[in-house]
Amino acid sequence: MNFSALKTYLTWAKAHAPKGPFAFIFAQDDIELTHTVAHHIKLGFRQTVVLADIPIARPEDLPAEVAFISRPAKSSSDISQEMNAVITALPQRWIFCGYNGEYLYYPFCETRSIGEIIAFNTEERRKTIPTTVVDLYAGHLGQSPDGVDVTSTYLDRLGYYTETRRDGEQAPLPQQFNIYGGLRRRFEEHVPWQKRRIDRVALFQSQRGLKFQPDFTFNLPEFNTISCPWHHNLTAALCSFRAAKALRRNPGSRHAIPSFRWSGSEQFKWQSQQLMDLGFMEPGQWF
Predict the structure, then answer these.
(1) Antiparallel, parallel or unpaired: β 153-156 and 128-138
(2) Whether residue 113 sits in one domain with residue 47
(3) What is the DSSP string of the chain?
(4) Do residues 244 and 260 lie in contact, with contact meaning Cβ atoms separated by under 8 Å?
(5) Which residues pair with 95 in a beta bridge?
(6) According to the model, what pLDDT value does residue 74 have?
(7) Residues 89, 105: one domain?
(8) 51 with 26: CB under 8 angstroms?
(9) 157 is in which domain, residue-wise?
(10) pLDDT in tens, 164-220
(11) How far apart are alpha carbons 43 and 106 in whole angstroms?
(12) In this structure, are 143 and 26 located in the same domain?
């Protein structure tokens, strides 16, 4: 299915889209786009939507049921306008948003569907599943100059830290944290300060009045919390090549970084258990 604009798709979706969670994938280029879509279809998303920056064309091997929308040229990292249109048009739907080369992982995702995790989270009276962005990168930049290699993929197993998020008057915000680490921390001289955080709410339930903000937070404080006050909730991870691609495309960082690997690197096994063992996500009360 091809649509000329997001507005056209949303008009169709309100009448015809299947019930269940949506995955919205923003394609900044065509690197690993089909692989990204296939991963989220396998998780059980009922509708997968690709919003591709013009002039990216629809890949020939993209499944026919995937909605493909051409996205006008703009700041491709700011998806807030589109996500707010989605929230308004599709209230009370669970929505995932990410980019090509980003893969959602949650505890036991190999054997449990996205519908199961949402049902459990709803029972816990939670409308969000917080995610930590885990930077992925190619093990050998000479062989993979764009920093992307799904057959020899690495991540940082250490070097992360968390700080309490504060409001404009420096008062701490309950259950809200800023998380830092990965490539954005190790090569922070090449990363604008506003793009160094790796906390993101990539999976949430839309509702009227909710606003998705450019920094991946929401206007409703509860949607930005990592857990409820009485116990730890389930969390997820978003394994992402975006930082690696950006550092390889920037002329300054490209020539300054001969390799992304260091003593804290570990090969990524593409398994949820590894991410739980390293502390990037936890099952909470879900076993």
Answers:
(1) antiparallel
(2) no
(3) -EESSHHHHHHHHHHHSPSS-EEEEEESSSTTHHHHHHHHHHHT-SEEEEEEETTPPPPTTS-TTSEEEEE-SS-TT--HHHHHHHHHHSTT-EEEEEETTEEEE-TTTTTS-HHHHHHHHHHTT-SEEEEEEEEEEES-TTT-TTS--SSSEEEESS--EEEEEE-TT-PEEEEEEEEE-THHHHTGGGS-GGG-B-EEEEEEE--TT--B-TTS-BSSGGGG-SS-SSSPPP-EEEEE-HHHHHHHHSHHHHHH-S-S--TTEEE--S-HHHHHHTTS---TT--
(4) yes
(5) 22, 204
(6) 65
(7) no
(8) yes
(9) 101-287
(10) 999 888 999 999 999 999 999 999 999 999 899 999 999 999 999 999 999 999 999
(11) 10
(12) no
d(CA 45, CA 235): 18
Amino acid symbol at 88: T
List, in order, residues 6 or more apart from 188 with CB less than 8 Å away.
Answer: 196
Q: Is the entire prediction scored with pTM above 0.70?
A: yes
Residue 77 belongs to domain with CATH number: 3.40.50
